[in-house]
Amino acid sequence: MTPTLLRAEGLTAGYGKMPILHDVTLEVRVGEMVSVIGPNGAGKSTAFKTMVGFVHATSGRVVFDGQDITGLRPDQVLPRGLAYVPQGRIVFPEMTVLENLEMGAYIERDGARIRESLERVYALFPVLSQRMGQKAGTLSGGEQQMLAIGRALMTHPELILLDEPSLGLSPKFVSLIFDTLAEMKRAGYTLMVVEQNAAKALAVADRAYVLELGRNRFEGTGAALLADPDVKRLYLGG
Ligand SMILES: Nc1ncnc2c1ncn2[C@@H]1O[C@H](COP(=O)(O)OP(=O)(O)O)[C@@H](O)[C@H]1O
Ligand SMILES: [Mg+2]
Q1: Which of 2, 50, 156, 233 lies most in the core, judged by the most C-beta atoms within 10 Å?
Q2: What is the pTM of this model?
Q3: Ligand 1 proximity of 89 Cβ (cutoff 6 Å)
Q4: Site to substitute for ligand 1 among 40, 45, 163, most atoms within 8 A of C-beta
Q5: 170-200 burial, b for 16+ CB within 10 Å, e for fewer?
Q6: Domains in the chain, ordered, with CATH?
């Protein structure tokens, strides 16, 4: 069986004293593309923030690549190969595409490895190589999202957590982002993606989870959830 890369088990976490997540369990195996869907406010972003250490769990644990990373800070988690692309296409607008990508490699000292990472990012997103000298703030929304993803890939991650990569993009760019996810999976990346675009997210996923009110509600293969009458009725608009 394919080994588990990340397992978040029984996470209870929140902000201040107020719990948002209640006993949430999520898992990704090597090479998988896993989607996490659910209504606004379900705790999807909080789950990702807890896994990478921005939010502290009051119970449960996170095991990544066989090591317990529960309670570690984001700057301790990142070098272990867990990359996180937060919601909102965050790029440095006044810096060029190339400078943004180089910022992503700030934990890397070896120039040859940085060049190799750049080559891989440019191979995956040729548009970024065409625009390497352009200020990031002048890119389209879809291109900025590719840059945000590309920057996360600069650290050679084993797993990439993407929070709402298609949020706020026009339909053309939404399709482009989903093509990109499929392309990343083909290139051998392991991905876990939060998406409000539930039907598309289930269609590309090997497995998926539905969160609701901070709890696990459904899980299964993308195909099984797409065909599930309850999932259809509740999350896919009938
Ligand atoms: N920084 C924060 N401080 C306090 N409450 C927050 C914060 N971020 C999110 N929340 C609350 O946590 C709940 C889950 O939010 P979130 O994880 O962002 O949901 P989702 O990503 O599924 O839309 C919401 O009720 C939201 O208002
Ligand atoms: Mg969110």
Answers
A1: 50
A2: 0.95
A3: no
A4: 45
A5: eeebbebbbebbeebbeeebbbbbbbbbbeb
A6: 4-235 (3.40.50.300)
